[in-house]
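dumping this here so i dont lose it again. seq + smiles for NAP
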Amino acid sequence: MMKAIVITRPGGPEMLQLAERPVPAPAKGEVLVKVIAAGLNRPDIAQRKGAYPAPPGAPADIPGLEIAGIIERVNSRPGEPGRWKAGDAVCALVSGGGYAQYCTVPESQCLPLPKDFSFTEAASLPETFFTVWNNVFERGNLKKHERLLVHGGSGGIGSTVIQLATALDCQVFATAGTDEKCRFCEQLGAVRAINYRTEDFEDVLNGLFPQPSMEVILDMIGGDYTPKNLRLLADEGRLVQINAMRGKIAEIDLIALMQRRLVITGSTLRARSAEFKGGIARALEQTVWPLLETRRIRPVVHSVFPLEDAARAHELMERSEHLGKIVLEIA
Ligand SMILES: NC(=O)c1ccc[n+]([C@@H]2O[C@H](COP(=O)([O-])OP(=O)(O)OC[C@H]3O[C@@H](n4cnc5c(N)ncnc54)[C@H](OP(=O)(O)O)[C@@H]3O)[C@@H](O)[C@H]2O)c1
């Protein structure tokens, strides 16, 4: 048996309770990881509230999309000896079940710990780096020297994309909800961060650039942000949607879309196949892991809670007081 945090029923943080569950068995092509740290992500809150059910095959009531720990057991497919062996230290993107002492994961979704990284630091990486890589660099096709606007710049996704795009020689602009958060975004590399509570981000960017000039916008807000985002995009610009926290219905000027050849896209990562996620893992290992190992990009862990205090960790995330990531440690 193992300890796990379970969602007893949809609702507030108090619905997260410590429980005993059987240790999961790895299916063919999976490994069993003894979890040492697990990252928190905003989708965990949506799942807790009942708005983001786990995909088939993932534990229905144990949240957690990213882990770091030690491989306990490998169950390779016959004739396909995998890369991993018991005792290897890994971090991994999982489809659920991360808030637990043990978690199973497809071999392809594991990555080695970047050199000199703690388990806590490594657990803060997978969900945001997989999401950012796929949405900004693959779907959004952000290229060197292009301009990127990211909303929610001070959160987990935001702090990842600001650092990564800056390290890859892009010019990054961000929005965030306080002046302190804006300074944090600028310390991470943003050229200019805009406090959306005191300034209109469209006005500020129009003041900086006479022509619409964002090549890519990463947005999780939606609603009334969408027409503003589209007006800010340069010709051939790409709007990449990864959530719609302010509303899933938005106004789109289809004539401008045609005239300026804009692209609106987006995706959700969790339900994609292990093969697809494995492809992102290999790209990250090749391109991004060296940047982490030289600390050109650094993990930003704002707070650490013991697994038992997952409810308090959720409360902190819902107050949006954090800068970067929140991580659970498992004794
Ligand atoms: N599609 C995918 O595959 C995928 C994967 C992972 C995450 N996501 C989404 O990406 C977003 C960021 O996730 P995260 O883990 O980085 O969360 P996070 O750390 O909580 O960051 C989100 C940031 O957005 C800002 N924010 C929250 N509610 C807002 C609102 N109603 N209007 C404007 N800003 C708001 C908050 O900053 P301020 O307090 O400064 O406003 C917060 O720092 C979430 O919406 C999540 O669901 C999508």
